[in-house]
Amino acid sequence: MEQKPKMALWKKVLIGIVGTFTVLLILSKLFPINYYETGIDYYNKKNYKKALENFSNVESSDKSYKDAILKINEIKPIVDSLIKVEEIEKEKKQIEKNNSGVTEEKVEAKETEKTANSTIESTKDEGLKGTVGQSYNVGSLTYKVERVKFKKFIGGLYTLNKADGVFVIITLTVTNKSHKEINIDNSYFKLTDESGAEYGYSPDGTASLELSEFPGETFMGMSLNPNVAKKGKVVFEVPSKNKNYKLVFTDPFSGTFLEIDMN
Description:
Layout: H1 9-30, H2 35-44, H3 48-56, H4 65-109, H5 118-126, E1 128-131, E2 135-138, E3 141-154, E4 161-176, E5 182-184, E6 189-192, E7 198-200, H6 203-210, E8 222-224, E9 229-238, E10 246-250, E11 257-261
Parallel strand pairs: 1-11
Antiparallel strand pairs: 2-3, 3-4, 4-9, 5-8, 6-7, 6-10, 10-11
Helix pairs in contact: 2-3, 3-4, 4-6
């Protein structure tokens, strides 16, 4: 009895790939992805990047195409702003990484002065405690919290953002007392409550405020020249306004921190 010739392995693999592709193609025709509904799902979860990606895949022949275009126009500025925030964060981390070696060298050079500087170091560890409306020196900067507001919604007509809890908008005036330009960033600030929980600034709230009818209000990418004072806002999202919150700023160069009671 004649044996059938064996099929080469590469042919089997090729047939398998073609078969899989064919099945996927048939399934995609039978059960097409509804990019608009998927985009809405991501939109409601505030995942604006994924939402924009799905809205952009809606075809012009789709009945939801016009609605998708409206959503794209609404969230694209937010996504662009979030990307900008991420780039600033990346640059800041790189700067901190580059400065870490310099900081270690300075610490080693000052090791012999440890005893003489013990009083100063203990002051840094304790930090400064303050209240709203007063000015405080932290390193080369002077801080003054002007006012504190709690809001459920933030942003303009096309960038309105609803908090899952509540937004805390803190207005500060910062003055550069040094002889060099200093960069200020929202990530330098955090909130704490009486339970010890810590809250970082809200990128979504910051982007919505930055893209509202009054742009340039936040500290996003802000730089201060010597002896210049600037007013800016930091946005946080917290579960409730019925807590004892404190704004904490740690100077990245001296290690001194300022704690201001928001009540």
